[in-house]
Amino acid sequence: MEMRLVFFYHMKNYLAKLVLNPNQTNGNLQIFLSPTNDYLGQLLIISEIKDADEQNKKIVKQIIDETNTHYFNSIARDSEKALEDALQKVNFSLSETIKQTSKKWLKSSNTIIIALCKQDVHFSKIGKINAFLTSGKEITNIIEGCGEEEVNPVKIFANIYSGNIPDKAAIIFLTENILDYIAQDKLRKLAIENSTTAAMSQIEEILKKGPRDKSFGCLLIKRDKEEKTVEPAQTTPTIKSDDIATRPLGSADNDTAIIKDEPTTLAESIFVDKKEMASAPADEEESNENCENENSMITSIKTKKPKQPPGTGSKVARRVALVLGLSIIIVAAGVIVKVYWPKPEPVEPAPTPEPAPIENQFQTILNNVQAKFIEAQNLLLIDKKAEAGVALTAAAQLTETLPATTPDQVNQKTMLKKKVATQLLISQGIKLATPQLVADLVGLSPTQLILVGGNLYILNSTDGSIYQINPATKESAKKLKTASQGIGNLASFIDSSSNNLIAYHSLDGLAQVDLTSNKILPLEWIRGWTGAPITGDIYQNKLYVISASATLLKYTNSLTGFMQEVSWVKDPTQVNLSGAADMAIDGTVWILKDTGEIIKLFKGVKEDFAYSVTPPLVKPTRLYTDLDLKNLYLLDAGSQRIILLDKNGKIVNQLTAEDFTAIQDFAVDEANSKIYLLDGNKILEITF
């Protein structure tokens, strides 16, 4: 049995999640919470699948990864629009996946995707996930009956529910079977009378007394000015497991809007048997209309009519009643059907001054850019890349004309330029990768990384220190010893040899870092020139470097270092190495020039090699391969993309991501189809 409890804070929203018994024999339960974004808030996903074979687990991961990527990479700054854009793309992607696999997983999947931004909440679901809004003595199932009809495999997430959370209210999202063991009244009391963490802890204690072969997932969002940091003493009733089945069922109805303060028995407030609960009291009214199919223009969700509290004639009381009454309207709009529940009547805002002309101009151009961008995205969904490229080119030209005069406008313009540039690459056939953060090297100035023995080693340019990270565990970077007598600060990695790193240091020499003992030793380097090499590599214990004079030199390994310098190119007049940027050796020497040309040398003789890449390279900086690798890997730092080509010059793949900002270096784990990238002071991981 596994339980994870996490506390999150965002603005005035307090969040806690519970995942109990997530991995059952044939099932799997996950709750995903993204980091908080300044404009779009957080993305929250609960996904439960009853038949969790490996293929179905991959589909769940696909939903989480793609929704997260498309939501935060949306050009829209409105959370509802960003969610709609993301779900359009996820729907298309899932429909393509279903064509190649099966749609059986849809029948066993319960998933809800939630966008939370300040007070606003938008969500879409399939299957049986419950959502309750609770405030004071009232609790309402805000989406009961909706999203449980047969799912359209072409438009899986068909509805978006929108609304906001009133102050001192809470929304509880939970998997269906929790209601078999905890009554709604108990959920209401726990959510309203406790902090999110205290409420979730008590929910956990109750569910632990339930069967261990069932998964339970719960997400609590509470809006308040401040949560208590010290909880009052709570008395949790002691319940014997053999008492559960014999206790009478609770009398509170599952659809009742006004919940009694004092249940008649303990079981009514804590455990509910798997039977339909008693009907509502006669003096309470309710509407029991279920959601119609997605083709309906307007559909009513089950709505509770609460009793009016004293003073209902006041404007504030009417506003609260409106929120807690909570009727939901489904409006068909484009690919996604949006569903709204009424928001509290806003207080009349003070009149705002007319925007300055420059602000009007900025907003007008921004709207035009967004329209072109969305047009291009829709064209890309149906594989009309040429037409999408035209729309994106127009968007790029419009973006350049944005009159950014404030810091916020400058940030918007920068973000738009990046997004449009990335989409232009996609329209030209480049694949959009989904980077995962391996490490954030805060406070460091990393310039290179290298993969040796399953670990990443990063060179910090500030003091020449080396840091080690295990990408599998993603533990914090560990600093290795980097100082030794007679050795300056390490300036660049040359390559690795066995379990050693070979590096050039600031005293114009070479050093060897023993990765087993973490000792650093000077290496003898007998050569006829001075200065740092442009690039270098180790192959079969021999050192190959390109000198500052653009000459390829080879050195033989000795007990103390490298010696016997020879020019390796047979006919230097046939090989122009000026502008060399990087080099890799697999028996053949491959040299990348800053023009993008790759020179192929075998036994010192130039051989024919040509390749063509679209779009053209902007600033190629790194090249990597090895004897055991099938491909050449090339970094074009100018367009922030990685290009894979086979050793005959055929393009295998091209990868980019909107998260890329300043890629400097990369390392390849071809056996596991992973590439690690040094992007600024972050290490990212992508798959290919």
What does it look like?
By secondary structure, the protein is α+β, with helices and mostly antiparallel strands. The chain has three domains: 3-340, PPM-type phosphatase domain (Phosphatase 2c, domain 1, 4-Layer Sandwich), CATH 3.60.40.10; 358-429; 436-687, Neuraminidase. 20% of the residues lie in helices and 34% in strands. It contains nine helices and 40 strands. The strands form eight sheets. It has an eight-stranded mixed sheet with strand order 22-23-24-25-29-28-27-26, with no helix packed on it. It has a seven-stranded mixed sheet with strand order 3-4-5-6-9-15-14, covered by helices on one side. The longest helix is centred in the middle third of the chain and has 25 residues, at 357-381.
Summary tags:
Phosphatase 2c, domain 1, 8-stranded mixed beta sheet, Neuraminidase, alpha+beta
List low-confidence stretches: 1-11, 229-337
Overall structural class, as computed from helix and strand content, comes to alpha+beta
Q: Categorize the overall geometry.
A: elongated
- Give the tally of β-strands: 40
> Span from first to last CA?
34 Å
CATH class of the largest domain: Alpha Beta
Q: Beta-strand level of the residues, as a percent range?
A: 25-35%
CATH topology of the largest domain: Phosphatase 2c, domain 1
Largest sheet: 8 strands, mixed
| Radius of gyration of CA atoms, rounded to a whole number | 31 Å
CATH superfamily of the largest domain, by name, is PPM-type phosphatase domain
The proportion of residues forming helix, as a percent range, comes to 10-25%
For the largest beta sheet, what order do the strands appear in spatially? 22-23-24-25-29-28-27-26
Just name the CATH architecture of the largest domain. Answer: 4-Layer Sandwich
Number of helices: 9
Domains, number: 3
How confident is the prediction overall: mean pLDDT? 78
